[in-house]
Amino acid sequence: MAAAQDDWAVLLGLEEGLRLCERPFEELAARAGLSEDDFLRHTRWLLLDGKVRRLACLWSSRRLGFSSTLVAAHPAAGAGSEAVSLVNSLREVTHHYRRSSERFPLWFTLTARGPARLRQLLASLEESGLFEEAADLPSTRFFKARLRLAPLLAAAAGRNLPLGEGGAARGSRASDEAGQPAPGGGRRGAVVPSTQAETSEAPESEIRPEAGVKAEDAPAAAGAGRREAAKEKAAARGASKGAPPGRAAGAPAAKKTGGPVASPGARQVSERSAAAAGGARARAEAAGKENSSSADAGEDAAARLSDFEKRLVDLASRGLDPVSRPWLSLGEELGACEGEVLEALRSLKERGVLRRAGAVLDSRKLGLSGAALGCWRVEEEKVESVGRAFAAQAQVSHCLARRPLESWPWNLYTMLHGTDDGAVKNAAHEMAAAARAPEPLLLFTEEELKKSAPDYRLSHKEVRS
């Protein structure tokens, strides 16, 4: 099998996720028709090349006591760079994009320790004086937050890759997104493949269920890369652990991810705007310290985890080592044995805190260069049926109903992906025709300003300092 074909097989396996067993890559390698060593070499290569952003444990933000929302903003005149810099400086901002909208060019997500902290952050942004207008768009109904990249890309490239037992279609219904396994490794009620994968466009943590949506129906995003994974990536440049069979060693390393990525102009912050931004950050931090109490939803949820589980959540969300026994490697950092780590992870999985462990892929580097946020105006009585129909589309990674505003009446949002902008437009047109819905407002992604995972450090001192 050629190296490129092996890469596809490895991507399929990594998307399916790692089992909570001593050697999870061994099983994935068998499905891909590779040895465990070759599977790991390909995995390291994909990490180096940036097609796989990281391996990590993905958690339920809600089960950890976090709240999220989507914010659309328009910077004040002459404050564009300063506004971007302020938004990117907040640890609670997980994703930030510049989109093709004159009204709201900046779109970002906030994931914070409970609703009180979320309100404080929104207030601090308003008080900064750097925004002419900002809209808080909380979700009211969740339909989907998953995208199966490998089969979608394979279809676009004319490939016909076998999914195997683990590649069964997965459900898009909210009840199925809660993580209840169906026979054969899939999930019930599906019509198209749609396993969980964090994309470059919208985080799974950006879901704040309201209006009766159960908390456990809201999946979470993965964490940022960690130093041990970086060591493995560096080692991958060598001949023995570097390039997979058929590929030369010494490939260029992937760009670092996980930290704020401001636009070039954001470095040129004026003294006036820098002071405003600094003041807003200080007010947000001070408000967090003053208003943090055990009554806060975030504190209550965190209190239900043991100290060991809190440390485990933090480290495992930052990244997993691409080695034969990743749980053993994680245990060494925690000062625990492999069995203790696996026992804790299985308990967290049963309690709905752990969603899965697996790969976080970069959709653009894998060939999906087209991406747009679709804003739809749907009659309220049709939101449920249209939302489910949209969620069943392979090109849709996220589908959520959101609270409309008088000046911004769109109430259903989809994140659409395609090989280019034309493919995204065609998909949106076909979806509108099938659902007998008005054509959407498509806001294409122009620039990724920041992409990181929620900060899941759960001790009060760590989060507030």
The biggest beta sheet, please?
9 strands, antiparallel
- The total count of helices amounts to 16
- Helix-strand pattern: HHHEEHEEHEEHHHHHHHHEEHEEHEH
> How much of the residues is beta strand, in percent?
15-25%
Gross morphology: globular
Point out poorly predicted stretches.
Answer: 159-277, 283-298, 460-465
Q: How far is it from the N-terminal to the C-terminal residue, by CA?
A: 51 Å
Structural class: alpha+beta
The largest sheet has its strands arranged as: 5-2-4-3-11-8-10-9-6
- Supply Rg: 21 Å
Strand elements, count: 11
Question: Could you give a quick summary of the protein structure above?
Answer:
By secondary structure, this protein is of the alpha+beta class.
Can you offer a commentary on this structure?
37% of the residues lie in helices and 18% in strands. By secondary structure, the chain is α+β, with helices and mostly antiparallel strands. The strands form 2 sheets. A 9-stranded antiparallel beta sheet has the order 5-2-4-3-11-8-10-9-6. Strands 1-7 form a two-stranded antiparallel ribbon. Strand 3 (93-99) and strand 4 form a beta hairpin. Helix 4 (80-89) runs parallel beside helix 9 (271-291) and helix 5 (114-127) runs antiparallel to helix 9. It is globular and about 55 Å long. The chain starts with a helix and ends with a helix.
